[in-house]
Amino acid sequence: MDRNRTLVRTFRHTTMAKALNTAEEYAKGIREGNRVLLGQAITLVESARPEHQQLANQLIGLLLSEGAVPSQTLRIGITGAPGVGKSTFIEALGNYLTSLGKRVAVLAIDPSSQISKGSILGDKTRMEQLAASDLAFIRPSPAGNSLGGVARKTRETILLVEAAGYEIVLIETVGVGQSETAVHSMTDLFLLLLLPGAGDELQGIKRGIVEMADILCVNKAEGDRVQLAKQASVYYSNATHLLPPAQSGWAPQVLRCSAQEGTGIKELWETMEKFRAHVQDNNFFAENRRQQAAWWFQESIRDSLLSAFFQHPEVRQQLQYLEPLVLQGKISPFAAAEQVLGAFPVRLNKED
Amino acid sequence: MDRNRTLVRTFRHTTMAKALNTAEEYAKGIREGNRVLLGQAITLVESARPEHQQLANQLIGLLLSEGAVPSQTLRIGITGAPGVGKSTFIEALGNYLTSLGKRVAVLAIDPSSQISKGSILGDKTRMEQLAASDLAFIRPSPAGNSLGGVARKTRETILLVEAAGYEIVLIETVGVGQSETAVHSMTDLFLLLLLPGAGDELQGIKRGIVEMADILCVNKAEGDRVQLAKQASVYYSNATHLLPPAQSGWAPQVLRCSAQEGTGIKELWETMEKFRAHVQDNNFFAENRRQQAAWWFQESIRDSLLSAFFQHPEVRQQLQYLEPLVLQGKISPFAAAEQVLGAFPVRLNKED
Prior knowledge:
Two copies of one chain form a homodimer.
Chain A: H1 2-14, H2 23-31, H3 35-46, H4 50-65, E1 74-80, H5 86-99, E2 104-109, H6 113-116, H7 128-131, E3 136-138, H8 147-163, E4 168-173, H9 179-184, E5 189-194, H10 209-212, E6 215-218, H11 226-241, E7 253-256, H12 265-281, H13 284-311, H14 313-327, H15 333-341
Parallel strand pairs in A: 1-4, 1-5, 2-3, 2-4, 5-6, 6-7
């Protein structure tokens, strides 16, 4: 509890740090497992200030070039509709993993923090036991103006916590937006939490998310819901058989657990280990990480380029004029696009 | 048969047309249902020559501003794994629709035509009966260097055939690439054809396509496959219940037919009519078309901008140098992206 408070205080204070260390000092401290320097470095990654950004880039470049970021970590994305019990689940899984002596980092991507500037894992205080462990490091979702920005920060934070020796990284997100795609593209394993019952909570989940899941787990399999949970897992088992096969060659598994009672967590972790063995054997693990790096590279270029374009005053003016005409079907989207592109001060070569 | 040959000959000849008509002449001819002028206009849309493009843009602009493109047409996307019998199915559905007195256009998007310069519906000669009907207009997939280019041409062709009075547009594609997303984003109704059996053909279908389908139809429900087809439709019915609800509020329907024997086609069309009534009642039909126009507008801007960027010599040089480092994890994708962006001759404002 005291440690937990200290942790929270550290987060606050790092944002106010006056004298910054050098990239070399941060790198050394992180590799030695210094939590304060780790927290400060994450704050640099999350900061919008150019000098912080520059230092963060330097630090990450240093860690990567030194090979300080180990490749044998496991990055687990966790999602599920609101009410499925994600926080309790993450604490239960995290506690189990630390009980095995593993070092666990918990991160989050919460697109709603764009608006509210709040964040999931703001209820971190509820993860009291996990937060109190020397083996665990919990960091709330960064805030940001765009999902792309928020996701980028989290992806770089993964590198930092891995360099600090956290071998399992749990990344939480909510099942309602595009954040799943972002989390999916930075994790090795994607876990979808479900409720006992007939899949009603899928109402709140975006299409395509079920197909991303490597493991589905029906939580709250406890008390008088045990039977409902069994029905749900049969139901989802049948459903996942219908999905086209994943690139990983892994057939999605459906499990049951009760995060509250701590049951099923061991079996879940064993299945995760099986998944890891499977994708390491067939080399998908490494290939997937390469693909993800390539994707973020491209995505990051696209993001910056498009955002620069759409912020250009002439472009904005053209958009404002043309978009209603496109929506009303008064002009072809392609003809309108050409007109907008003409407003950008770069000669663009025509395709085809 | 003779008519069919004439049609094929027309396609060939239009590409060699010497004297072009004016946009006004094309518009008038198309509105009057002149098939030769319609074919020539589509050739203009498909042409890479700037003067053809310009004339095509003018023509489409004219048709849109005159309100010549009716909004009450129905655009149906049709996909399915190779071997599912798409051509036979389209002929059966087309024949049924023309027997009701409806005017039907058949278009296609075939990404493989990028490589082979061939096209699906190249087997159009197999649709002999439909091709011979005055009420039907069949056009093979355009060729092109990119899916985006091919899709754009087809989307503009839809406007032309609708202006020519074809009230139902069937757009065929193969279930193996990204072309489904393109077809999905230009149609009102998406139909997935399936084979009797336990879904093995889904092996050949890209993830996410099942979720796009408004109607699933098990084809080849004939002879000793009737029972297997029944099993398959139960199987898919269960599966689609598990999908998160579509934006349209329509629950996907699973039907059976035999295109060869012509059974189930009437029921399928009735279900399509039900779908249309549903989405017209809840206003999704119009809203979806607006969203699609907005999507193509954005997508077209993105496409051109990104393709201009990635063709820039300095950018290509940087990419060639940095991409291997990104894949090897030696540099952060974000830092690499910044370096590439620096090579582009436009000052880009930083995001966040």
